[in-house]
Every structure is written in C-alpha cells, then in structure tokens.
From TrEMBL:
Entry's Gene Ontology BP terms: carbohydrate metabolic process
Protein name: Uncharacterized protein
Organism expressing this protein natively: Jiangella ureilytica
Taxonomic placement: Bacteria, Bacillati, Actinomycetota, Actinomycetes, Jiangellales
Amino acid sequence: MRLIPTVDDFTSDPVVQAYDDMVNPPGLTNFLGAVQADHDVTAVRSVNFAPVSHGDTVTGSLWIDGRLLRSFGAAVAIQWRPDRVVRSTRLGDLIVESTTVTPPGVAGVAVDVVVTNTSAAERGVRLGLSVASTATQAGAWRTPEPPSEPNTLAPVPGRAALLGRAATTEAVSVQGLDADGARVRERMLEVDVRLEPGERYRFGYVHVVGTDAEGALAAYDTVVADVLGQVEAARRLWDATLEAAFTPGNDQFSGHVPTLETSNDALRRLYWWGVMGVIWFRRDSPASHLGRVYDTLMPRYWQGTTFIWDFSLSSMIHALLDPEPMRRQIEHWISLDIHRHFGTEWQTGGPAGYWYSVNDYAMIRLVRDYVRWNGAPDFLGVELAAHDGPAKAVAEHVADWATAWEGLRTSHALADYGEIDNLLECVSSYVHEVAGLNAANVWCLRAAAEVAELRGDGGRAQELRKKADALVPEVGELYVEGQGFWHARRPDGRLVPVRHCYDFTTVGMTIAADLPERRREEMVAFFVRELQTPAWMRALSPYDDDAAFSLRPDHQWNGAYPAWPADAARSLIELGRPDVAAAWLPGLARSANQGPPGQAHFVEEAGEPVNGGAVKSPPQFPYLIDWSCSSAGAWSALVVEGFFGLRPELDGSLTVSSRLASVDRSAVLRGLRVGGRLVDVTIAGAVDAQPAHSSGEA
C-alpha cells in the first residue's frame, strides 16, 4: 500500500475534445506562475509569471503543411498529471503527440512534440507554430484576467526564435524551436521534415517571459538546449514536492500532512486529491510582497489573488502543511479592512474585489485552525493593528469578527447580508437574512467564547455563549417546516424559500447539535432528494424558483463549487448520517479524475461525465469557470475531521469521535501533527506515532 503519492497517482483520465467543445483545458505550474494548455496539440495560453503577464493570449498553435491544425476538425485527447500535460491527435497518416511542462525555476513553458508517419510511404511535412506576444509588466493584477498589451515581434539573431517586446514596459517574451533547420517568419516558426514509414520526428517549442531581454534570452537558452531534460526535471520537482508534503521535518514546507493507510480506495483518492489541490496553488514568486502565498484560482482567472473565503475552506490543510505562510496571511488580512474586499493580490499586498459576507466566519476559522492544529495559543495574545485602530490582541479581533453581524441587523434579530454580490453572486434569491451565515454567527460566538475562556475571561465567554444560544431559535425561524431547506428573509419580512446547498452545509457544520432530530432527518432527506447526484451534487435544487436565473455552475442547479460536496458530506456526518456520506464516496472519487478540483463541476445532466466522473465546467461565457480552485483542502478535512473525527482544541487537548465504521474500520492516519506532538489515529483514538516506513510503502 503506497502511503505517499507520486505524480503517477494523479494521472487524469483522457479528455477528448473537438473544435470549440466546451472543454476546460488543464493548467500547469512550477510554483512561480501558471500556464494553460489550449485546444490543439501544442498551443498554450495564459502564460503568466508575475510580474510579467500575457493576459489570456493564445500562442504556439500548430500548423500542418501551411494549414491551421484546428481547422481540420481532428479530435485532441488531453491527459494531465501534476508535472505535465500530454496531448495527441491523428491527422490522416500523421500522429502528433506533445508533452507540455513548466520547467523548474523558469518563468515559462516547454512543449516537446513528436510527429509520427504511420503510412507505408515516405512523406514530407511542414510543421509550423504561430506566435503571439502580449507581455506586459504591472504591479497589481486586480481584474479576473491578468493584464496584457500589444508587443512587437522580431527575430532573434542566431536563434530560431522571436522576441516580443512590450511598448510601455520592459517586459519581453522569447518563443522558439530547438529544431535543426528551423526558420523564422514574421509570426511563425517553421521546420520542414521528411519522414520514412513509421519514422518519428521530435522538436521542442519553448516560451519564456521576463522583465528584460538579456535575462529572458539566458533562460530561454538554458531550456531550449535540453527540452527533454526539462520534462524529466518537472517530474522530479513534483515527486519531491509530494514526498515532502507527507514527510515530517521536510525542507519544502513549514509543516506536513499525515499519511493515510486504508483499504478504501475512494477515501484515499479524495484525501490525496485535497492535499495535492492545495499544494497546486503554492506560489514562491520573487514578485510577492508577502513571501510564499497560495493563489485561489488558476490558470486563467484572478491569478495573483488569494480569496479569504476559499483559503478558509482549505484551512485545516494550510494549518498542517504550511502554517508559517498561513500565519503571515492571517496577520496581513487583519491589517486590512476585511469588510471591503474578498481578498488580496500579492504583488503589492493590496485589496482585491468587493466584500464577501462570509469574511468574518472565514477569519475565525483560519485563526482557530492555525492555533489548534499548531498548538499555538500564544498567537491569540499577539497584538496587531487593524486598518482603523490601535494594535490589540488577535483574541480581540476574533471577538470583533464574532459580533460584527450585530451591526448588520435591521428590524429583525438576524444579520442582513445585503445583495447578490456579497453572497453567492449567481443566486438572486439568496440575499439579505440567510440561514447559513446566521447559523455561522452562532458558531463564531461560541468559538470566540472558547478563546475568551482560554485567556481567563470567563465573564466574556459566558456573555458570548448566551448570545449564541439566543440566536439559535432566531435562525430556526427561517426553516421551511417539513421540507428540509430554509427561507431567506427580505427587509420587509417576506420569507422566500431557497433550496441551496450553502444552508445545508453550513447549518449542518455549525449548529447540527442545536436542531431537533426531525429537522436533521428532513435536511438529509432534502439533500438526497434534490441536491445529491451519483458523482457530484447540485448547488441549487432544480425545483427552486431561482434555477432559471443563471447558468454559472458553481452555485446553481447545473453543478457545484468544489468544496460543496466535501462540506455536504461533512454536514451529513454532523447531522447523524455518516452512512449516507460513506455511500456517496465512490461516486465522488470518480470525479477526482481530471486534475485538482475545478472551480465547478457539472452534474451528470448538464455535462457528459468523464469516465463516470463529473466533468469540469468550461471557462467560456456564460459559465466563466476556472480549471482549478484552492478550496480542495475541504476534501482532506472531510477525511480527517469528518470520518476520523479529529477535534484538536485551543487548549491543546485532542478528542476523537470516529465515524470510520462507515468507511474502513482499519484505517489509520499516521504522523498527524497536533501541536508539537505526532500521533497515529485509528478507530480507537489517537496514540503517539510509530516510526514511519522509510520506503513510503506499508
């Protein structure tokens, strides 16, 4: 049994696409920036390595005998794994295959291309790649797509390459081939070859960006001299990174995650999916104002931005794997006004976007997870200044966030979270007084009470718990009796039923124990009846009146954001039905077959599944979905906190409420770090960890 995954364990199922199919092509990263494969065999787009960006420009499109490959209509098969994207197509008697990587330490991409003549006769073929360059340099990327600007293109003396230069900055791109006899035209790189029957011909395409021509050319020369070596180097980088993530005392992360021993393949796959899906967003860019950071989306939208909400959904993995950058990120957000933006862009550290109403809840989750998983209660006493006042202890900031909702009350007892942009953005009925976030306020008050009690302020703890208890029945007034879902209340008092998963997941994860048994049963029945699908879930019931409002699948009837199924399974567990969550796992694991979790996956009715897995939703309008999203850590939390039932407390104590009987009674988490202690966790509880197997096998 393998305990530490390699890149091979994440190899995706092939996705086959023809021209303009609604396919979201995969991305790549070397932790400096990101690149996205495009819809033919060689093309790439979104080649963005801060501080240099290309926007979403497509370049490197393949031409065969003077004709654009895409125009032939040949289907392209695409397969991803963390270190590479492999693409292939057949055009008559030619097979074209490519391997695309982001070379370690390089702001760029390399594509190794192999063309095979499958006919019984010799034939000549002209191979061309069209080049586009829109490189620019900007200090803050505060829009969904990174900036770009027109470039001039000119041949590079002594190289089969074109140099793109920005008009207003020093940014450049270098794009070229490693092929003997290659020639350069105005916007084209070409080479003519003759192939014997069965003969294979390879060449490499390299695309590097930089802040000056000299540095970019030097990087280009290094990569183009050994494209195959760069392919292997990318594999070594990712295998070493994965091994480090699961190894105590490694030299890549400030922490590590435990290994999982289980005979349940679905449980293992989802756990690994969550860990890899967080590592995927690590950025060690020299352009970062904050040092190491973790992006939220890639490879197309909001690069260079970290959203508070999404970061909090992977909170447990951040706390275990890399607590030092997590702490810096928390401290940075404390210094800003979290009620005026949804996150920060890391080239300047400045705010990005508008206010998300979840921010108070998200910040308390982040602080609490950092403290309890790292045994760091002293952090609660660290004095930090917010944007609008003097320095005060982190514990005081927690109390402020826990009571911020009181300032949002109008004529009713619950917080009014405003309009659509503050909440789910594409569900017009989920506005104002919503059950999910008001239930979260109950949890926040109790979390702040734990902080106060730990710091010796029993009076404040009692006051906060009293407020929480008083708020529970007020939240209960939003329940739709007998139906399992909740109302949203308008400012005029009108109750509008909303069959959305965010109420199901958040109410279940925050106040399940406060609900009558009948309501818990009704909520589970509603979820199974209207939201759950075999391999994914609907964020909004198709029976909801708002289901026709939008086609954005992260929050609508046609799909769900990647953390929602994981959190829905957590909610099922908290509502007393781990068996329902366990039975769902094999289908969910089938959806872990296309790389890290997408910003949304389609449900089966909306998009043809890929080998039984819910297909990633596409980036085109009206869907506007990126290929991957950093909230993947919710899947690992489902395993650790959901099925293993781990509960580290602020005071350093650890409790285990195991639900492993529903998935694998013999499963073991090995080397789990809780404070300064390493423990192994079984169905019987936690004990001091045994020495690890040096081979990574069990």
